[in-house]
Amino acid sequence: QLQLVESGGGLVQPGGSLRLSCAASGFRLADYGVGWFRQAPGKEREGVASVGTAGSQKYGDFVKGRFVISRDNSKNTAYLQMNNLQPEDTAVYFCKYRHIWGRGTQVTVSG
């Protein structure tokens, strides 16, 4: 079964940090790029970050140097380190590999 499972979300105060994980099963994560997306209530899903097979990274303009995407092919897992989180970062965060989406993990930033 081809599956992506996100974890690491939660409630954090403004200025705090979270590290999201995206664990793949049923396929090799190393064979293709991986992306993180998010969707806030009432808003469209938007791209947060992506990492290519060779490690190249792209980020949404709103990231402004606060997030870092990475991958550990030996663990078949991708990560999103999020620092200096703000209330506007509150959303469900999803990872995507080709046509496969995870179910998401909730991130809530509130003080």
Helix content: under 10%
What's the tally of helices? 0
Described by strand count, sense and barrel closure, the largest sheet is: 7 strands, mixed
Distance between the termini: 40 Å
Describe the structure.
The chain is an all-beta fold and 111 residues long. It is 0% helix and 51% strand. The protein has no helices and eleven strands. The protein has strands at 3-7, 10-12, 18-25, 34-39, 46-51, 57-59, 67-72, 77-82, 91-97, 100-101, 105-109. The strands form two sheets. Strands 2, 4, 5, 6, 9, 10 and 11 form a seven-stranded mixed β-sheet that branches. Strands 1-3-8-7 form a four-stranded antiparallel β-sheet, with no helix packed on it. A hairpin with a 2-residue loop joins β9 (91-97) and β10. It is globular and about 40 Å long. The model has no long low-confidence stretch (mean pLDDT 96).
What keywords describe this structure?
single chain; about 110 residues; mainly beta; 7-stranded mixed β-sheet; globular
